[in-house]
Write a structure and sequence with these properties.
This protein is an alpha+beta fold and 814 residues long. The chain has four domains: 196 residues, no CATH class; 191 residues, no CATH class; 156 residues, no CATH class; 197 residues, no CATH class. A hairpin with a 4-residue loop joins β1 and β2. It is 49% helix and 18% strand.
Length: 814
């Protein structure tokens, strides 16, 4: 311990004696360690930290699969939930939810809130007790049950003034009286995978008022969650659910025709399934940045070790052990790395702020990202590892040096072998930088492609808002039709409005898409359970207001109602799949219509074909689309699309007046420009592209510094040789070509290795790319040119300095 303290004090003195060297090394390491710490804070919050529930490792999502139609991750039906609870022995319990919205009225202005209909065991299964009152009990679910509601802490505080006596009081939701039985604690949120369409910002929960067991077996809309028994594994639970699915297929024809299967996934693993590849790719990127930083600092330490060769060899000659010398190098390197880690913590904090600013909406866990004790511990561990890595180069160089040469101080020339470790480090920097720059270039090109990707509609100058008339006052289809028909006419009369339409499911919204089987005339029984399409009810004018091109046929009109034959409009992808090389107009499909809140299968004639609209995301065509006229298939809510001549914001006040004139107790909600949905759909790709661009910029900067440092040292070591060359008539251009050529050769060797590595590794990013291949030649060529240019500049500066060497001064060094 005494000698270790001596090494520590000696290392501090040496760092103080060389402030320029210390500052350069600390800053370089701070960039690498800070970037790693910032990304690790995200990794810790999203992938490592358990979900905020008791015993979160027992929680699982349960998905339905239809083998006949190739449909995976499908919501379940009410009877499925009942059968699972009765038949499973390895699942402690199974709960289900479906998220909708409702109008909260009463003491103040009406407000549309996001509400989750749940099974009575849903909150108790999650295991988080309410901060006031209680969770639901079995008698509060089903037909004829007492209507109960549990509020979120935010809604309770904002709407009810944090009234501690709220439990037992009544609230009016969609015109019905519900009794508040509890208030959930602050920060409580339900966490589901993104494709489950269960948003985390639910403001209230209420039990299903229907008897789920009596619903159709093929009506899948429930998102199910389960808790696996502690003594069981997920593999055992999956095997049991597979057996239950076989039983259900054998007992019920609906399940047999669909090829029903059941899948159970650990909840945490399922929640992060989409973001895991992105975060791991970013973490690999910052790891490369740190390795490049280590190579740079290793080069600095190597240069410094060259200057201390006499000191080291004298120590060894006087009896110092090799272990003591190695420890001295390690202590100094670790001191540098720890200083770099301390300097990197503010950079990590700034990086976390940037991450929070850029975070996509589908990563709610990012809101809890911070530089915690765990993250600081990670930074300390990375600092120690970095110190050990940085010390490798000078240690190896030290024990490969010749004792006699060092004592003679033969500085009149340098050999290629002497510079080989530095060349290897720069070679490594360039190769790693190439891989990182290519990955970043692919992500940036993906984002650029995404900016120009057509969603199938025109989002500019379109205002959207949603309206949901309460069922208690609008009991029939006719009531809803009259309300929406008059509202559409009133909005169309607002100054500045060009066209008005409405749709049951807005593009890129988080409201669950509704999709069902469809089939043409003459389809076999198997074909009737093969293909699914999104079903959307629209008002006439929807396509015009959203700029969706009509390919063939006509749009709906006010006469497409229950008194006329059923009509539908389909998108071109469904038309080509169903009737390839034929016109779809006049042909019939079997689809689902909604009549008085019940689902009815019927035949409908295709009267129009429109372009495909990307409703779920901007990069993939998920399913074909069937549009039904609202006046033939009414829904309880509609999203309006209002196209205006300019900025739609000024028309909002007049639109609110039009809605209030129809019904003052119906609030508008999700009021936003259509462009906001498009921007939100790009945030995940923007998040990855910006971060990878920042990392690539760091890698490029560090690689340039590394090349510059090596060439500067090379020039300094060959001062006498350069002086002799110039004294013998060498021209400045020759000297410049000599130095720059050395830098270019070094760079090209790194580029060749980096090219091969990138060619093999970028395939791992294919799932994150859009509109560009993983081995895109333009990206590879551009990165090669960029790194070559940077190497040229980094080598030119010391080359210019070499041409300024005075031959007489250089010869005196001899």
């Amino acid at each position: 311990m005494e000698t270790l303290l001596q090494d520590f004090r000696y290392g501090l003195r040496m760092l103080r004696k060389n402030p320029g060297f210390t500052a350069a090394a600390v800053l370089t390491l701070a960039l690498g360690i800070g970037a790693n710490t910032a990304i690790f804070s995200v990794l810790h919050a999203v992938l490592i930290r358990p979900l905020p529930y008791p015993n979160p490792g027992e929680l699982a999502t349960v998905w339905t699969q239809y083998q006949n139609g190739g449909q995976t991750r499908v919501p379940g039906s009410g009877p499925e939930w009942v059968e699972l609870r009765q038949r499973s022995h390895l699942l402690q319990d199974v709960a289900a939810t479906w998220v909708s919205s409702g109008a909260l009225t009463g003491t103040s202005e009406p407000e549309q809130i996001r509400i989750a209909f749940v099974t009575s065991n849903f909150l108790s299964l999650l295991g988080v007790p309410p901060q006031l009152g209680r969770a639901f009990v079995p008698g509060e679910q089903g037909t004829g049950a007492a209507r109960a509601i549990v509020l979120s802490e935010g809604l309770w505080r904002r709407r009810f003034g944090a009234n501690p006596d709220i439990v037992g009081q009544g609230v009016r939701l969609d015109g019905r009286e519900l009794t508040v039985v509890g208030v959930m604690p602050a920060g409580f949120r339900v966490i589901f995978p993104n494709d489950a369409s269960v948003p985390g910002d639910v403001q209230a929960w209420t039990p299903f008022p229907e008897d789920l067991a009596r619903q159709p077996r093929d009506l899948g809309y429930l998102r199910m969650i389960a808790r696996v028994r502690p003594e069981a594994t997920f593999q055992q639970a999956q095997a049991e659910l597979g057996g239950i699915a076989r039983q259900l297929r054998a007992e019920f024809s609906e399940y047999a025709s669909q090829g029903l299967d059941l899948d159970v996934e650990p909840l945490h693993q399922d929640v992060v399934r989409d973001v895991r590849p992105t975060l791991l790719a970013l973490f690999a990127g910052v790891g490369m940045v740190l390795l490049i930083a280590c190579a740079n600092v290793g080069n600095l330490l190597l240069v410094r070790a060259r200057g201390r060769e006499k000191e080291t060899t004298i120590r060894l000659a006087l009896g110092a052990t090799a272990g003591r010398v190695v420890r001295q190098f390690l202590v100094e390197s670790v001191l540098l790395a720890c200083l770099g880690g301390l300097a990197g913590l503010p950079l990590a904090w700034a990086g976390v702020k940037l991450l929070l600013l850029l975070r996509p909406g589908d990563l709610p866990q990012l809101a809890s990202v911070n530089v915690s004790i765990t993250v600081v511990g990670f930074a300390f561990g990375v600092s120690l590892l970095t110190g050990a890595l940085c010390a490798l180069a000078p240690i190896v160089a030290c024990f490969h040096s010749n004792l006699g040469d060092a004592l003679k101080n033969a500085s009149r020339g340098t050999t290629s072998a002497k510079h080989r470790p530095q060349r290897i480090l720069v070679f490594t920097e360039v190769a790693l930088g190439f891989v990182l720059l290519v990955a970043s270039g692919l992500m940036i090109r993906t984002f650029v492609k995404l900016l120009s990707a057509s969603p199938g509609f025109e989002s500019d100058h379109v205002l959207t808002f949603q309206v949901a008339p309460p069922r208690v006052r609008y009991r029939s289809d006719q009531d809803l039709k009259l309300f929406f028909r008059e509202l559409q006419k009133s909005i169309a009369d607002v100054p500045g409005v060009q066209s008005v339409g409405a749709v049951s499911h807005l593009p890129l919204d988080d409201y669950p898409n509704w999709y069902e089987y469809y089939w043409p005339e003459g389809a076999t029984a198997q074909e009737q359970t093969t293909l699914m399409a999104d079903h959307r009810a629209i008002l006439p004018g929807y396509f015009k207001s959203l700029g969706v091109p009509l390919v063939a046929g006509r749009d709906f009109n006010d006469f497409d109602d229950r008194q006329r034959a059923n009509a539908i409009i389909i998108d071109e992808s469904l038309a080509k799949r169903t009737w390839p090389n034929q016109s779809a107009l006049g042909k019939r499909l079997n689809v689902v219509f909604v009549h008085n809140f019940s689902w009815d299968r019927t035949w409908a004639e295709v009267v129009g074909v429109v372009k495909h609209v990307r409703y779920e995301n901007l990069t993939t065509e998920v399913r074909g689309q069937v549009y039904v006229p609202y006046f033939q298939s009414a829904r309880e809510k509609l999203a309006f699309t209002v196209r205006t001549t300019g900025d739609p914001t000024p028309t909002l006040g007049l639109i609110r007046q039009a809605v209030a004139k129809q019904d003052k107790d119906i609030p508008l909600y999700k009021v936003r420009p259509m462009e906001a949905y498009v921007v939100q759909a790009r945030t995940a790709t923007r998040f990855t592209a910006v971060l990878s661009g920042v990392l690539a910029g760091l890698a490029l900067l560090l690689a340039a510094i590394g090349i510059y440092g090596v060439m500067s040292y090379w020039v300094a070591q060959r001062t006498s040789e350069i002086g002799i060359r110039m004294a013998l008539g060498g021209r400045s251009g020759d000297i410049t070509r000599l130095v720059v050529g050395q830098a270019i050769r070094l760079t090209f060797a790194g580029l060749a290795t980096g090219f091969l590595a990138a060619w093999m590794l970028t395939g791992l990013l294919s799932g994150l790319l859009y509109g560009v291949s993983a081995n895109d030649p333009l990206t590879f060529a551009g990165v090669s040119a960029l790194l070559s240019f940077v190497a040229l500049i980094a080598g030119y500066v010391p080359a210019r300095r070499a041409t300024k060497i005075d031959p007489m001064v250089a010869l005196r060094y001899e």
